Amino acid sequence: MEISNKTTPCIYDAHCHIHETPDNLNVLEKETVVFCVQATKYTDWNDVARLKDQHGWRVIPAFGVHPWFAGRVQTGEIPSEWHTKLRQMLELYGGGIVGECGLDKVAKDPETGKAYPFAPQIQLLKKQLLIAHEMGVPISLHCVRAFGTLFEVLKEAESKGTLPPRIMLHSYSGSPDMLKQVLLKGKLGKHVYVSVSWFVNGRNTLKSKECIAAVPECRLLVESDLHDAKEALPALERIIGFVAEVRGWTLQEARSKLMANSRAFFNIDSRNSI
């Protein structure tokens, strides 16, 4: 990843979609924030790539197929060779990651009112996990009400030796017990990072406090999970303050620790920090 010796970012937004509000992207030139911008649909991969081209070190690109859109491969809306292009994008944009992908048993297609088909989600998740492993890059996972299946998929990859080097559970919405007893245990736990956002985790602060307390401090990340760049920084400040409160850190300690964790997750050398 290219570096800048002009500024040192104070915050990493580990997961956002700010490419969807191009009119507000001037904030990228004003704030010392690095945004991991997550594609979702295949059709927006080039949008994320352009953002990286335009803003350099301030953007970490993520290319993937979100579970809501996994069924589009079956319908032909996403070409069957999507995985070839994914590899190409990761090769072209060093420092990029796979995402957003995962599993979702709750969300419904607004056009049909029906839940998004689940079988294609599993199929595409397995393929994207394998690509992340083979390319040696991290992956950002969405999971809603499907943590049992997610664990089965990850354990299968573990048994085959094909886990990605680092796995982000973004805006983690599962239980504290799932973290402590399953996802952060054994060989799998050595790969897992847990990211929290005020957008999602602020909805149930009691459970979120328990989850944040359950994560080893070196595996915590923060994100905005927002689409508007202007709203991202206040959201990041709020979740950083919440993490600091839960962990008993000062705000400066929280920023420092979370920055170090982000650099570790994205494999950014702190000696040449961006």
Automatic annotation (TrEMBL):
Domain of life, per the record? Eukaryota
For this protein, the record's InterPro entries field holds:
Metal_Hydrolase, Metallo-hydrolase/TatD-type, TatD-like
- Its recorded name reads Uncharacterized protein
Species the sequence originates in: Coemansia umbellata
